[in-house]
Every structure is written in C-alpha cells, then in structure tokens.
Amino acid sequence: MPLIHLTDRTLIRADGPDAVKLLHSVITCNVKTMAPGDARYGGLLTPQGKIISDFLFYCLAEESFLFDAPADRAEDLLKRLIFHRLRAKVTFAVAADLAVAAVFGDHGALPEGRLFTDPRYPGLGQRLVLDKAAAEELSGDLAAYEAHRIALGIPKGGADFTYGDTFPHEADMDQLGGVDFKKGCYVGQEVVSRMEHRSTPRNRLVEVIFPTPLAVGQEIVAGDKSVGQLTSVTEGRGIATVRLDRATDARAEGVPLTAGAVEVELRKPEWATFPLDWEKKVSALDAKFKPT
C-alpha cells in the first residue's frame, strides 16, 4: 500500500509571532503568502548560494510551521535556524512526537493527521504528518518510495546532489518551485538570482533511460570523455548529474552516451521547463530556416 513512513525524514517546528518575518528573510520559498494547510518546497543556503539543506515546509497555523527535512541534515539545519534567529520571537525544536508519511497511488483509509500536497510535482502525491507512534505502525519500505520518486525524475539531496556543494539550479530546485525569484532577499539570494538571470547552469539533473540494469555511481561517457554520473536508479531508468555542454557536443558529433557497455538516453523530466542544450540548438535552427 503506498502509504509509507518516511523514516529518513525529521520534522522541525518553528513557532512564534516573528516566524513569518524571520523565515521569509532566510529561506528560499515565500513564507508571507502561505496560509494554514499550504506546503512549499524550499531550502536554506550558504551566503555563497549553495544548498545547506532542502526541505518541504508546511504551514500549520498563522504563527506555526514545520520543516520536513532529511534526518541526516536536521541537526545542522536546526542549529543554523537558531543562529539566524537573533532576537526574533520564534522558537525552533525537533518535533520528536511527530513523523511524516508519503501518500501516493491507491492508499485506502488514512490514519489521523495533517495532510499536505507535495508542492514539487502532483505525481508525487501527498505528505501526512501524524503522531510518531501511529507512523511506526505503517510500512517503512523506503525502497518503494524511492522507486516512485526516481520514476518521476525527482532529485533527492544526499543522493542526487551533494549538500554544501550544489547550487539550487544544479539540483533543479528552480524547476520544482523551490526558489521564489520574486520574494526579495534571503540568504544566498544574490548568487541564485544572478544564475537565474545571467547564466545557464552547466550541470543539471536529468532522467536517464537504459535497457539493462545499471548501478548508482556509474559514469556516463561519450567515447573517452566523462559526461556525467548516475546518482539514482530504479528499473529501466534513473537520475544523473550531467554536464550539458559535453552531452550537447556528443549529440552534435553523433557519439553515443554509454554507462559501462550500455547505451543510455538522456531526457528532460516531464516537469522541467529548461531546454536541454541540444534542444535549444535545434529550436534556433528551426527558427532560422522555418518558411515564413
């Protein structure tokens, strides 16, 4: 049953009259426009614009929020949120009494809890915040949820990108609603805005299609040149971090992309709006030579 206790996630509470003002100025998503029951995807960045942690962010009430964060990032995320608090009237604490479950597909009746739509992509389903004791009675089959998110091409921090060394655009956060480019300042905003408006990310996470099983970590090459690396795999498909310029050159030269001895195909995820570099070149040629 696709109702899975996400044992690799930790919930952090943020409560207080200054919560909206503080968090809106610190994290990448828009907090001021949220109402109870809303969910956003966001992140906390370094001043240099790299991802410390990404998370789902839930509005419980006017002055009460939850971070749904990777468990192995929770301690550091909590410390950094407290660091940014200064004299603001807001408290941060791990919600040790709560847990979160992924809800997708045919799931039947749900336990009591707060249900939030996953803001990244409709196909991901929903998140259910519930008492930890109730969550522990659910399936903890993380492999089933991993297969679900990989099949949709949704990146996961720590697997598909490295925390502390990745810009939001390189993790496709800009494609999944993880950055609000109209909200104004937040930590790392200048670097992220400059990348959005003045440059094209060299690296992107894209889908990979392959006919026979491959393993995480396998290098994708064009001849003897490295193009990228597989970061997540499920049956017949996966996610890879790819140098778009090198993949484009390989396409232009007719050189196949392979992982091991297996030829692979790179695809843009269904939810992505960025063109792959070779698509941009084809579009430009179409526009140049299309009859008027």
TrEMBL record:
It comes from the Bacteria. Gene3D superfamilies: Probable tRNA modification gtpase trme, domain 1. Keywords: Transit peptide. InterPro entries: CAF17_C, GCVT_N, TrmE/GcvT-like, YgfZ/GCV_T_CS, YgfZ/GcvT. Residues 12-104 form the GCVT N-terminal domain. SUPFAM superfamilies: Folate-binding domain (SSF103025). Residues 202-273 form the CAF17 C-terminal domain. One of its GO terms (biological process) is iron-sulfur cluster assembly. Pfam families: Beta-barrel_CAF17_C, GCV_T. PANTHER family: TRANSFERASE CAF17, MITOCHONDRIAL-RELATED. NCBIfam families: ygfZ_signature. This is Folate-binding protein. It comes from Xanthobacter flavus. The lineage of its organism: Bacteria, Pseudomonadati, Pseudomonadota, Alphaproteobacteria, Hyphomicrobiales.
